[in-house]
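## tool: complex_structure
## caller: assistant
## args:
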Amino acid sequence: MAETVFFYIFTSLMLAAAIAVVRHRSPMYSVLSLLVVMFCLSGLFVMLGAYFLAAIQVLLYAGAVLVLFLYVLMLLNLSPDSLNRANVFIQPVAGITAAGLLFVALCRVATQSPLPPTPTVAQPGTIEALGRLLFRDYLLPFELTSFLILAAIIGAVTLAKGKSPS
Amino acid sequence: MDLSLLRVELCVAVWIFVLLAADVFLAPAKKEGLSWLALAGIGIALVVSLQPLPIGPAPTGLFALDGVSHYFKPLFLATAAAVILMTQAFRPQMPQHPGPFYVLLFTSVLGALILSSIQDLILLFLGLELLTFSLYIMAAYLKTDGRSVEAGMKYLILGSVSSALLVYGIALLYGAVGDTSFAAIRAFLASGELTLAAQTGILLVLAGLGFKLAAVPFQLWLPDVYEGAPAPVVAFLAVGSKMAGAVALMRLLFLALAPIQPWWSPILASLSVLTLLYGNLGALGQRNLKRLLGYSSIGHAGYLLMGFAVGTLDSARAVAFYLLAYLVSTLAVFLIVCAATDELGGDDLDHYAGLSRRSPGLAAAFFIALLSLAGVPPLAGFVGKLLVLMSAVAADRLWLAGIGAVNVAISLYYYLMVVKRMYVDAPPSPSPVRVPAASLLALGALILLILGIGICQAPFLSRINLALIF
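## result:
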């Protein structure tokens, strides 16, 4: 029972914060809302028994990555007015329609087709179990992720250095 | 896992670091040589990929080196080689530092190579991300050109949305099945009823792949990106990225979703009709050649989807042949576009006016490549279209084949409009268009292939029949 209550607390908070990330005019508040999302997500991980993942989530995302975001935002020193949002009528209408359709579909999935119970793992959430998965069963995807990050780094450097279109 | 399965990918991966090191240590004046170094890497990987397939038990695990991947890997590498030659011809417009461009091309090719071997949804996602992420940056590579930056930005935003849909679909499918491997999904679908969660998951995964293929209604990004991105990148988008999406879809449909073919077949058939009509009707009024080729590539995606919708082994083989014909024709077109853009002063159709009087050979090559794309006998594109339509007729989908045939006629109109510009209109200046020797050689080889594949299909067909067994 307590689990269900906590699940709803975390998810509703996470959804509210996620909407704030997208909707807020000031990028600073968006980043801070993202922090709330990350904490709630790690709360969900704890409830699933993935303690290590929850700790990493807080350490890396809430700690390192978001601090970097804040740092960059402060360097850029954007004022809220500099982010002009085009007020096209079609935009919110199309967005709400698509989101509504997806919501209806997911509601039907949730009510009509119960998912099978989560398979129980022998050692839930331990570093050992995670390491076994990452470095043995899913070694190839793990290594490919490093190439994805390499491409992202090279791309960021290439696009950031030098002149931009005037 | 057995590393020999990954030999082609390992070649490409090692060469990424060779290119990075060379980019750091080469003197700025010698960086032109990087394109030859990149070509050498592709050449090595191509030789490795052409090694015969060891005969063994059916592949298991995340990654397979089977007939399908063995057929498509050399095609991806050949595309990359052609794109490198295009960057040489396109050099006046490229920025001074070409190193990162080739590294990103290689990571993109790595993603495509992985996609041709996937047996698992996790690898499907990673392969697509690797392929697309590199392309976002390559599309925006001309930083001083606002259109290129806009193209990269649009591609990034819409691509991220499609990735989100794909991941959501994978999560739902995992929730319904309890596993991400194609074999487990197949066993689940074969045994039980199709639950709503699995249906929604599969639809979302198909939507993510539809974005790659540029199938209606996921095609909105394509014309703007094609018009704005640098021409060599557009060539890789049109051939490499589309072929990778098609191979991934083929593996997903035939390895994982085969038991529910009656469910997905009508969905893909209706998407195919919409895609064909949108692409071919949209191309009619275009004034920019790259944009026109973008709409026509949506039309070609329609034929690929038609082959998938039919869902027989013959139609999968027809799609494999179609992709080969599409590859040689499209690469020939883009080699000419890349070589000519600088001298002609742009890539609008007006710039191509009177090309036959300026460079008769180039115009003739362009003529042949465009007719092959349109599907005129005896060229390669004709055989590809014929095989796809025949497979639809053989599976009693006469209406689908009929719509496909009507679209051949529509596409002939706009391809011939380009030809009319080249042969009838007066040129703005009489000076011939100079093309680098390497590009000219590649163009000659591609034109010979267009004619060769069209006239003598038997060796290619038997190669495909041996490779594609599901």
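## assistant note: Chain B has one domain: 3-467. The mean pLDDT of chain B is 90. Handing back to user.
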